[in-house]
Amino acid sequence: MNIVTAKEMYVWDRQAMEEAGIDGKILMENAGRAVAQNVEKLVDKRQRILVLIGAGNNGGDGFVIARTLLNKGYTVRAVQVVPDEKIKGDALAHKHMFLASNYQLEHLEKLLDLFQSIDHSDVVIDSMLGIGVEGRLRSPIDQVVEYLNQSKCLKIAVDIPSGVPADEGVTDFSGLKVDHTFTIAAPKISMFIEKTAPYFGEWEVVEIGLPTAKLKKAKRKLWEKRDVAATFPRRNAYAHKGVHGKALFVGGSFSMPGSIAMAARAGLRSGAGLATVATVESAWPSVAAHIPEATYTRVEEEAGSMVGVIDSGIEGYDAIAIGMGMGRKEGAEAMLRNVLEKSTCPVLIDADGLYHAKQLLDEVSVRNAPVILTPHPGEMAHLLGIKVPELLARPFEWSQRLASERGVYVVLKGPATIITTPEGTQYVETSGNAGLAKGGSGDVLSGILLAMIMQTSSVADALCNGCFLHGKTAERLTEDSHSQVDLLATDVVEGLSQTLRTFSG
Ligand SMILES: NC(=O)C1=CN([C@@H]2O[C@H](COP(=O)(O)OP(=O)(O)OC[C@H]3O[C@@H](n4cnc5c(N)ncnc54)[C@H](O)[C@@H]3O)[C@@H](O)[C@H]2O)[C@@H](O)CC1
Ligand SMILES: Nc1ncnc2c1ncn2[C@@H]1O[C@H](COP(=O)(O)OP(=O)(O)O)[C@@H](O)[C@H]1O
Ligand SMILES: [K+]
């Protein structure tokens, strides 16, 4: 499913009308009916519904919703919150249909009266403003939104909650916080931005008859269950360990032996055929105790940190993950440089490896085999030389910039993980929960991703499926046997088995 900006939505809408000849009034009817149908699932006929209608086409949808629900016997009051002369075009046509159906339209005259109506309603449907919002909310909608944000009634937004921008990059706004959003035709980018996402509540896309083929080739896609089903690697009955990849995990230090152990174990649990861990001697015993299935390569150390490089055999691996617990000493940077230059397979860089990668972005750019960077927002901001809030305001744009300038895959981690390919295609993967907000979760993800890369022909599919496997495992564990408070990264590693049983062959 495509994720759109406001501009892309308007272009799609115009193409539907001008090229496909679909009347805008029909699209509005479809939109209003689709939203009304969903409202029926949430509301019963005894509940009092208030539909708030604004000036643009979002308001037009509101006229259709109010008429549809009234036709079906729901208790609905419709209030137009803007003056009559502001209602134009298709919205005006639907206003006429509403009035000609003999339904009553109220007008906002005194705010106090409207506040009283809100107090006497169980459900408020917000069709005041949609993706056409510009700047901060103006009077009287700002006051209505402020009052509604304090109200206990059930709030449902049409397309997007009033005041909330559809795109990334807008940080100065005031908006309505709703319980449910029924968004038209496609999810909007702001649903995946930290600052705006909480305004939408639970959201769902409603289909209104826009021709899918007219939407220009997707630049951003939501990674869904059906994508997982179509691309998740299947085990071949005649397989042997060599078929599923030989992975090298480089990292660990005396003070941080756990990260590399978790990554390698997660890699094996996710289907890697063979795993070798390259780590310092002082970390080796504890790592080996956790993964007897792995083999080991010793790396020279100084005061517990890596200083040596891997002398031989690095060409023999199918994929390498580097950085977990490797520390920030200069020697570790030399190791990363060595891996980037000598190996010919995909290299995934995480954690401390990303710290060193900042100095090695030119080496990264010239590599022929894929490089995958898996930063959390702090690491990504460091790589780009910007502040975290700046990154979080425009994560799609920054990811695209880094991926295309350096020719790398970027996995920007978070509640909505954004996966960007070197060509600039972006995927959003939303599984997981705050149980994963704990040390070690990223290490586990690295191991899963590396295993997926070795088992899938498309790196992008592998990364999306790996994030899905990680997030779904956390979701399942916090439903079945853990809470979001106690969940550990190692629980996720062991929980992979059960998740894999449900969807891999
Ligand atoms: N294919 C589509 O895209 C369809 C879109 N539809 C609806 O149309 C909406 C977009 O319609 P519009 O472009 O008319 O935009 P809006 O319905 O968001 O309204 C924009 C109007 O709101 C006012 N406004 C803008 N910023 C404001 C602010 N900060 N404070 C107060 N008032 C402000 C201005 O009068 C402006 O003309 C969508 O969100 C969706 O609900 C549907 O009608 C069906 C088809
Ligand atoms: N609140 C959250 N909701 C969903 N996923 C989360 C949340 N917090 C963290 N995660 C996931 O957990 C992982 C954390 O990675 P990272 O920050 O690198 O952890 P660490 O450095 O501790 O290993 C990422 O995959 C991220 O998407
Ligand atoms: K709205």
TrEMBL record:
<feature type="binding site">
    <location>
        <position position="442"/>
    </location>
    <ligand>
        <name>AMP</name>
    </ligand>
</feature>
<dbReference type="InterPro" id="IPR030677">
    <property type="entry name" value="Nnr"/>
</dbReference>
<keyword id="KW-0547">Nucleotide-binding</keyword>
<dbReference type="InterPro" id="IPR000631">
    <property type="entry name" value="CARKD"/>
</dbReference>
<feature type="binding site">
    <location>
        <position position="376"/>
    </location>
    <ligand>
        <name>(6S)-NADPHX</name>
    </ligand>
</feature>
<keyword id="KW-0630">Potassium</keyword>
<feature type="binding site">
    <location>
        <position position="159"/>
    </location>
    <ligand>
        <name>(6S)-NADPHX</name>
    </ligand>
</feature>
<feature type="binding site">
    <location>
        <position position="443"/>
    </location>
    <ligand>
        <name>(6S)-NADPHX</name>
    </ligand>
</feature>
<comment type="similarity">
    <text>Belongs to the NnrE/AIBP family.</text>
</comment>
<feature type="binding site">
    <location>
        <begin position="413"/>
        <end position="417"/>
    </location>
    <ligand>
        <name>AMP</name>
    </ligand>
</feature>
<dbReference type="Pfam" id="PF01256">
    <property type="entry name" value="Carb_kinase"/>
</dbReference>
<dbReference type="InterPro" id="IPR017953">
    <property type="entry name" value="Carbohydrate_kinase_pred_CS"/>
</dbReference>
<protein>
    <recommendedName>
        <fullName>Bifunctional NAD(P)H-hydrate repair enzyme</fullName>
        <ecNumber>4.2.1.136</ecNumber>
        <ecNumber>5.1.99.6</ecNumber>
    </recommendedName>
</protein>
<feature type="binding site">
    <location>
        <position position="325"/>
    </location>
    <ligand>
        <name>(6S)-NADPHX</name>
    </ligand>
</feature>
<keyword id="KW-0520">NAD</keyword>
<keyword id="KW-0521">NADP</keyword>
<keyword id="KW-0511">Multifunctional enzyme</keyword>
<keyword id="KW-0479">Metal-binding</keyword>
<keyword id="KW-0456">Lyase</keyword>
<feature type="domain" description="YjeF N-terminal">
    <location>
        <begin position="9"/>
        <end position="216"/>
    </location>
</feature>
<dbReference type="Pfam" id="PF03853">
    <property type="entry name" value="YjeF_N"/>
</dbReference>
<comment type="similarity">
    <text>In the C-terminal section; belongs to the NnrD/CARKD family.</text>
</comment>
<dbReference type="InterPro" id="IPR036652">
    <property type="entry name" value="YjeF_N_dom_sf"/>
</dbReference>
<comment type="function">
    <text>Bifunctional enzyme that catalyzes the epimerization of the S- and R-forms of NAD(P)HX and the dehydration of the S-form of NAD(P)HX at the expense of ADP, which is converted to AMP. This allows the repair of both epimers of NAD(P)HX, a damaged form of NAD(P)H that is a result of enzymatic or heat-dependent hydration.</text>
</comment>
<keyword id="KW-0067">ATP-binding</keyword>
<feature type="binding site">
    <location>
        <begin position="130"/>
        <end position="136"/>
    </location>
    <ligand>
        <name>(6S)-NADPHX</name>
    </ligand>
</feature>
<feature type="binding site">
    <location>
        <position position="58"/>
    </location>
    <ligand>
        <name>K(+)</name>
    </ligand>
</feature>
<feature type="domain" description="YjeF C-terminal">
    <location>
        <begin position="224"/>
        <end position="503"/>
    </location>
</feature>
<feature type="binding site">
    <location>
        <position position="126"/>
    </location>
    <ligand>
        <name>K(+)</name>
    </ligand>
</feature>
<dbReference type="InterPro" id="IPR029056">
    <property type="entry name" value="Ribokinase-like"/>
</dbReference>
<feature type="binding site">
    <location>
        <begin position="57"/>
        <end position="61"/>
    </location>
    <ligand>
        <name>(6S)-NADPHX</name>
    </ligand>
</feature>
<comment type="subunit">
    <text>Homotetramer.</text>
</comment>
<dbReference type="InterPro" id="IPR004443">
    <property type="entry name" value="YjeF_N_dom"/>
</dbReference>
<comment type="function">
    <text>Catalyzes the epimerization of the S- and R-forms of NAD(P)HX, a damaged form of NAD(P)H that is a result of enzymatic or heat-dependent hydration. This is a prerequisite for the S-specific NAD(P)H-hydrate dehydratase to allow the repair of both epimers of NAD(P)HX.</text>
</comment>
<feature type="binding site">
    <location>
        <position position="162"/>
    </location>
    <ligand>
        <name>K(+)</name>
    </ligand>
</feature>
<keyword id="KW-0413">Isomerase</keyword>
